[in-house]
Structure formats: structure tokens, C-alpha cells
């Protein structure tokens, strides 16, 4: 049969062929490229996050230890953080009894993970620190001893809500369980120049030498604009222009130093029962 008389090729093109034949600036190809780039970018970011997680965890641990060293007054930038931290004794404390718990491995105890475990979280009848109505029944605390092996300081983690955020920090107490050596926060989202002045070294220095409990045993430490009736030794001046953050700090410190927090442990500490 002559070529001129052969039937023309019929049939529709498949979707792939139509896509390939479309102009480079067509809507379909533009959307395809955009979606493909998003998928590739998301996979790269996810892979990087997974790969860097151990590094991030290590950096967070270092930062936490730096803050513990600083609040205890033993931080030296010329000494490796992990080496300096070996002077501290970590213990998992059961808050209700004020005694150390052997229920957990100190090396693997994770306070964040513990806060999600309903078996070791207790509900709060009152929540002045703004903890969401519940708190961990166990906390990791740190003891620091002097060269003779005697107890020198106790470092206790504290947290509570300020104006915009939850403030996480540490308070360092002398071995008598009453005198404050220092307080500082390592994580918060308070207003720069106002509530964020909790990081100001001059304000943090106000805590040194203050007392928690009055002579009658009542908790007296106060963050306010004027000293409490017990006197100036129980008083830390509130932050200027940051009333709600100051109230939050007052609430969280008094909560954690009270019966619902470390009260049972502090009683044992004041009685000389913590070795």
C-alpha cells in the first residue's frame, strides 16, 4: 500500500508524555518543581535534625551543667565543664518523703520524660507556680562537698510561670538548708529589658545571703517592692517595670521551698540528716 494511503496514527497521549511535552513555564511543571523542591528540602531538614540530635542533646546538657556550676559559684571558664561537674553528687529525690529514691538510674533519669509518666506525676490542689495543675513527684538534685568531704551546697531545680513563659532555673542553698547562695534561670521567654532582667547579674546577686525561713520556721523569703515584716534578710527587691514576672518568681520560689516542693527535704537538711 502506498505511504500516502497509510492511516494516520491515532490515540491520546498519556499523562507523562503530555507533561514532558508541556512548555517549561507551564502551570503543571511549575507546581511539580515547587512540590519536588519542598519534598527534597523537608527530607534534608529532617535528616539533619536526626543527625544533629545527639549534638543538640550534648549541648543542652553542657548548658545545664554550666548553670549549675554558676549558681554554686564554682564555674571557671578555664576548666572543662564536665570535669568541673564531677565535683557534684546527683541524686533523684522523692519530694513527698524528702529522701533519695533508688527507683531510677541516675545516669539515665530524664526529668522531661518523667513529667509525661502518669505513674510519677502528682496532681496539685493549688498551683501558685503555674505548673499546669501537676508536678513530678521526683526531681534530680545536686550536692556539692568541700575538700574535706563535708556538705557545702545543695542545688535544687525550680520552675514556674512568669508573665509570658515558664522560667526554668536553679537555687543554691548553703548546707544549713536556710541560707540562699544564689538563684538563676537558664530558660525563659520574658520581655527583654523588663522581665528578662532575671538574668541581670546585679539582680541575681541580691539573692546571695538571703534566708528562706524565719526564726519561727515559717517560709519568709519574698520578692516584692518592700521588705516583709520578718525583715530585709528575707527580702529580694522586685524587678523594676516587671511586676508580673516578679510575682511569678516570688510564687515559684515560695512554692518549691514550701511543703508541696522541697519542704520535706529541707527539714531533713536543716536537721543535719542529709549526708
Give the biggest beta sheet: 6 strands, antiparallel
> SSE string, helix = H, strand = E?
HHHEEHEEEEEEHEEHH
> Termini, distance in Å?
108 Å
> Whole-number average pLDDT?
88
> Runs with pLDDT <50, length 5+?
6-10
- What fraction of the residues are assigned to beta strands by DSSP? 15-25%
Question: Rg from C-alpha positions?
Answer: 29 Å
* SS class: alpha+beta
Helix content, binned percent: 25-40%
Total strands: the figure is 10
**Side-by-side strand order of the widest sheet:** 2-1-5-6-7-8
What sort of overall outline do the alpha carbons produce when their principal axes are compared?
A: elongated
Enumerate how many helices there are, as a single number: 7
Characterization of the model:
With 275 residues, the chain is α+β, with helices and mostly antiparallel strands. It has helices at 15-21, 27-71, 81-85, 111-114, 201-205, 243-257, 263-270; strands at 88-94, 99-100, 121-123, 134-136, 138-145, 151-161, 166-174, 180-187, 222-224, 235-237. The strands form 3 sheets. Strands 2-1-5-6-7-8 form a 6-stranded antiparallel β-sheet. The protein has a two-stranded antiparallel ribbon with strand order 3-4. Strand 7 and strand 8 (180-187) form a beta hairpin. The radius of gyration is 29 Å and the shape is elongated. The model is unreliable at 6-10 (pLDDT under 50).
Amino acid at each position: 500500500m502506498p505511504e500516502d494511503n497509510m492511516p494516520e496514527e491515532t490515540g491520546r497521549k498519556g499523562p507523562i508524555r503530555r507533561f514532558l511535552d508541556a512548555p517549561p513555564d507551564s502551570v503543571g511543571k511549575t507546581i511539580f518543581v515547587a512540590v519536588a523542591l519542598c519534598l527534597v528540602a523537608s527530607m534534608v531538614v529532617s535528616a539533619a535534625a536526626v543527625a544533629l540530635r545527639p549534638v543538640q542533646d550534648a549541648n543542652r546538657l553542657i548548658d545545664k551543667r554550666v548553670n549549675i556550676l554558676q549558681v554554686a559559684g564554682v564555674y571557671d571558664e578555664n576548666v572543662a565543664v564536665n570535669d568541673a561537674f564531677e565535683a557534684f553528687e546527683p541524686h533523684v529525690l522523692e519530694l513527698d518523703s524528702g529522701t533519695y529514691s533508688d527507683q531510677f538510674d541516675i545516669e539515665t533519669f530524664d526529668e522531661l520524660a518523667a513529667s509525661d509518666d502518669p505513674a510519677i506525676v502528682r496532681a496539685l490542689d493549688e498551683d501558685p507556680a503555674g505548673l499546669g495543675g501537676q508536678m513530678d513527684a521526683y526531681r534530680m538534685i545536686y550536692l556539692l562537698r568541700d575538700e574535706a568531704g563535708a556538705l557545702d551546697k545543695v542545688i535544687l531545680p525550680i520552675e514556674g510561670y512568669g508573665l509570658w513563659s515558664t522560667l526554668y532555673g536553679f537555687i543554691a542553698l548553703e548546707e544549713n538548708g536556710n541560707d540562699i547562695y544564689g538563684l538563676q534561670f537558664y530558660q525563659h521567654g520574658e520581655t527583654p529589658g523588663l522581665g528578662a532582667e532575671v538574668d541581670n547579674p546585679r539582680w541575681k546577686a541580691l539573692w546571695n545571703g538571703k534566708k528562706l525561713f524565719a526564726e519561727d520556721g515559717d517560709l519568709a523569703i519574698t520578692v516584692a517592692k518592700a521588705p516583709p515584716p520578718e525583715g530585709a534578710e528575707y527580702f529580694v527587691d522586685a524587678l523594676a517595670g516587671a511586676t508580673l514576672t516578679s510575682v511569678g518568681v516570688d510564687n515559684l520560689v515560695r512554692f518549691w521551698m514550701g511543703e508541696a516542693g522541697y519542704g520535706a527535704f529541707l527539714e531533713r537538711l536543716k536537721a543535719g540528716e542529709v549526708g
